[in-house]
Design a protein that fits this description.
TIM Barrel, alpha/beta, 6-stranded mixed β-sheet, 637 residues, Alpha-Beta Plaits, 3 domains, 22 helices, 55% helix, single chain, 8-stranded mixed β-barrel, Rhopdopsin 7-helix transmembrane proteins
């Protein structure tokens, strides 16, 4: 074919378009968050190979257009390099496919060996046939011919057949929807390339290689698909639910969590992945799966297209229970229907996680109204706690301080008290510590509450003393989580100083920690504040874990025996003797002993005979607003 015909078959705009597309993809990837995995690095390599191939194709044709004898060697080199780079793209397609699937190493090595063999053979033949004049050549007059054998075309279709074989081979490891994308894109690429041959056009050769690259970009790197399970991420789930809400479409959801696989670096066992892929594809029409974390997936499907969803769910659950009986993998399954108008589109993952925390292992739970009510209440309390912490107002009216007076046996007076906290919120009314403290601790908001309680306790102590009431101190409860903060000691001392009360006026109640690291932190904080005059109580002694050696290492002033110890002492003489001996031991080591949970005269009498120094409980008073504590106090002499 004469040179002018070769040139007429080609327009540089096809390759310029490929260069522009490669540049755009590269920019998008560099300025977006993408996991830098092995498959991502292979993808970048393919982009670079395509860009260089497009440059070679442009250069080869430009030199033909402005042909000079001295360009001849360079023309041959650029043409061979162009073909070799595209064969290399085919090889890297193969490498990419094996890297994202779970085929065995032996299978992967065989596939790569065959692919590399095709690359070497075709690239070598292209060079050899060019040298022998059987392929592309330029005669002495400068006219270019394609030659008798178009080895690139032969190599192209050879690789296409091989890639089709490869996709069929790995199809069981790939989510069907993803596989169908690549089937369609390869078919389109081959169609365009074949039409080029038939109409004697050569401008879109490199472009046909970029179509699979676009599919790879969308399905694997921009769109958050998990190739082996066909799942999207939680952000895609939010978007889907938002669109379903907007269109007023009812849907169903089903969450499966395997607690053992929630941690980083873990993934579902292959047997479970197979079941998930099968059920999602075969049972639910237009169902979409989302991977919330390594151990949890959520399936969402339109209710109108799955009217018999409860039957299908039961089929899934039955199969999963059978799988569980073999694999012994703990699980939690939660399912229900859309909650439009009850929770926002971006709350589903958090809501399901909340329900998961409350249900036991190996249970299937259908969402109830009570679940939603508890979730909304807890979410509201969390928001309010965060707002209290953010504002940092030590007089925040939402934090109420109650007090329970403590009876001093030696003085026969109430001269100390324990501060107890309540929240008063607009939507919930009074909220007790058993509800809000775990939420505050989980969200690291508890110290904000403690600072407010300490401040209000100091204010009332100062007020009562100015009014002539005798009050030694008020104790406040502190969480181990707070002690870990490096500012804890300074925060407490600043509040005491700002209120102009002495440090002995405040006591801190702590529960024992089993963790050695926590114990060392507790020891350091107690020693720091104890030196400044703050008293310390060991709270809840007798519940759960107690390490006597560690207790004696810490400068506690008062040991609080829990209500359970008071109850135990009344069960029989042996138990009473045991509690009495413990109390006497602490007393002998100069600890003061406080029994809490005294509810009647019998409790009081036993504790008076068991080395008690202080008594606290409903027999004397329920918790009262701290502003009413003066009714139990005596006037100072």
């Amino acid at each position: 074919m004469p040179a002018n015909d070769v040139i007429r078959m080609y327009s540089r705009m096809g390759d310029v378009g490929v260069l522009a597309l490669c540049l755009v993809i590269f920019i998008l990837l560099m300025f977006s968050y993408v996991n830098r995995t092995k498959s991502f690095r292979l993808f970048l390599t393919i982009i670079i190979l395509l860009a260089v191939a497009a440059i070679c194709d442009i250069g080869y044709h430009e030199l033909l257009l402005f042909y000079r004898p001295e360009y001849e060697y360079l023309i041959y080199t650029l043409r061979v390099l162009f073909h070799s780079l595209l064969f290399a793209v085919f090889f890297f397609f193969t490498l990419y496919a094996t890297s994202i699937t779970n085929i065995t190493k032996k299978q992967a090595n065989i596939i790569l060996f065959v692919s590399l063999g095709i690359f070497i053979v075709m690239a070598s033949l292209d060079i050899i046939l060019t040298i022998l004049g059987l392929g592309f050549y330029i005669d002495e007059s400068g006219v270019a011919y394609r030659g008798k054998i178009d080895i690139f075309l032969i190599g192209y279709y050879t690789y296409i057949v091989f890639l089709i074989f490869l996709i069929i081979k790995i199809r069981k490891f790939v989510f069907k929807r993803v596989a169908y994308v690549f089937y369609a894109v390869i078919a389109l690429s081959v169609t365009i390339r074949t039409l080029q041959v038939l109409i004697k056009e050569a401008s879109l050769t490199t472009f046909t290689f970029t179509l699979p690259v676009i599919a790879m970009l969308y399905t694997m790197h921009v769109n958050p698909y998990n190739i082996t399970m066909g799942t999207l991420d939680k952000y895609a789930m939010r978007d889907m639910v938002k669109n379903l809400y907007r269109k007023d479409i009812e849907f169903i959801f089903m969450s499966m969590t395997l607690p053992d696989y929630v941690g980083e670096g873990k993934s579902f066992p292959e047997e479970v992945k197979v079941q998930i892929r099968r059920f999602a594809a075969e049972l639910f029409r237009d169902g979409t799966m989302f991977q919330i974390n390594n151990g949890q997936i959520i399936l969402i499907a339109r209710k109108d297209r799955n009217p018999d969803y409860e039957e299908w769910m039961e089929t899934i659950l039955k199969a999963f229970r059978e799988q569980h009986s073999v694999l012994k993998i703990p699980y939690k399954i939660v399912y229900g229907e859309s909650l439009r108008g009850k929770i926002a589109h971006n709350e589903y993952a958090a809501f399901i996680e909340y329900v998961n925390e409350d249900i036991p292992i190996n249970v299937t739970h259908r969402i109830k109204d009570s679940d939603l009510k508890r979730y909304k209440t807890e979410s509201y309390i969390t928001e309010q706690l965060a707002d209290i912490a953010r504002k940092g107002d030590l007089d925040d009216p939402r934090v109420l301080v109650f007090a329970q007076p403590v009876y001093n046996i030696s003085t026969k007076k109430y001269d100390t008290a324990e501060a107890l906290t309540r929240l008063r919120l607009d939507k919930t009314g009074l909220v007790y510590p058993g509800t809000f403290v775990p939420i505050a601790e989980e969200n690291e908001l508890v110290h904000a509450i403690t600072r407010i309680v300490a401040n209000k306790a100091c204010q009332i102590i100062k007020k009562y003393r100015q009014e002539g009431y005798a009050i030694k101190r008020i104790s406040i409860n502190v969480s181990m989580i707070e002690l870990k903060s490096g500012t804890f000691c300074n925060d407490i001392m600043k509040i005491i100083k700002d209120n102009d009360v002495d440090p002995e006026s405040i006591a801190i109640e702590l529960t024992e920690s089993q963790n050695l690291e926590d114990f060392m932190i507790m020891k350091e904080r107690i020693e720091t504040l104890h030196e400044k005059g703050i008293k310390f109580y060991l709270d809840d002694f007798g519940t759960g874990y107690s390490n006597m050696e560690r207790i004696f290492e810490l400068p506690f002033d008062i040991i609080k025996f829990d209500r359970s110890m008071v109850i135990a002492s009344g069960e029989d003489k042996r138990s009473e003797q045991l509690v009495e001996n413990l109390a006497k031991m602490f007393s002998n080591f100069n600890f003061r002993v406080l029994f809490e949970g005294i509810e009647n005269d019998e409790d009081e009498e036993r504790c008076l005979n068991m080395s008690a120094d202080y008594l606290q409980g409903f027999k004397y008073s329920q918790p009262i607003p701290i502003g009413e504590l003066y009714t139990f106090l005596s006037k100072s002499n």
